[in-house]
């Protein structure tokens, strides 16, 4: 770098030619009588209010959709409660395993 050759980022073809106008227009600049904290709190309140309105609309749409999808309970046929539950399945699995083990041991005794 000390030999004076230009580096790649400094070559004219790689850098964009950007001009920035720094003049302040009274029309485009916000009023500076408000502190940054006050403008932040104001914007935060606006965003919170908009979020609340959007969420309220979502809840209303969802409740309307749920009311349309809800089927009256009188139209569904009543079936008897199932006798199969987790405990009965565990008893069945234990009984099957015990029977399988006894069968395997009996087969081993006969052949062994």
Layout of secondary structure:
Blueprint: H1 36-69, H2 86-111
On the 0 to 100 scale, the average pLDDT is 79
| Helix content class | 40-55%
Poorly predicted ranges: none
The strand count comes to 0
Strand content: under 5%
End-to-end gap: 88 Å
Q: From N to C, what is the helix and strand string?
A: HH
Based on Cα principal axes, name the global outline. elongated
Radius of gyration: 39 Å
Computed structural class = mainly alpha
Please supply descriptive tags for the structure shown above.
112 residues; mainly alpha; 2 helices
Question: Please, could you describe this protein's structure?
Answer:
This protein has 112 residues and is an all-alpha fold. The protein has a domain at 35-70. Helices cover 54% and strands 0% of the residues. It contains two helices and no strands. The chain has helices at residues 36-69, 86-111. The termini are far apart.
Structure summary:
The chain is an all-alpha fold and 112 residues long. Helix content is 54%, strand content 0%.
